From TrEMBL:
Pfam families: YbjQ_1
Signal peptide: none
Protein name: UPF0145 protein D3876_19810
SUPFAM superfamilies given in the database record: YbjQ-like
PANTHER family xrefs: UPF0145 PROTEIN YBJQ (PTHR34068)
The species this protein was found in: Sphingomonas cavernae
Family under the similarity heading: Belongs to the UPF0145 family.
Amino acid sequence: MILTTTAAVEGKPVHQYLGIVTGEVIVGANIFKDLFAGIRDIVGGRAGAYESTLRDARKEAFAELEAEASAKGANAVIGIDIDYEVIGKEGSMLMVTVSGTAVRI
């Protein structure tokens, strides 16, 4: 399946629009990751634990988006938007959402 943030796939006309599809993932921040991320921020290193969590959440959100598009009979999703939000008490959770338009090209 083709997944793109652009409004079209170059050289491949859209034959059918199948609707908006989404993928949402909410992950909680781990207290130990918070502690080590804070230490790394102080000494100037990268927060690898957060980067890994963010990468995994994004991959899972894209997998949900692709599964929903496939269930609609799509072979591509165009116009994908990726959003990140911190939610929960004191920003204790991260929400990753992806949305786009399922199409047949």
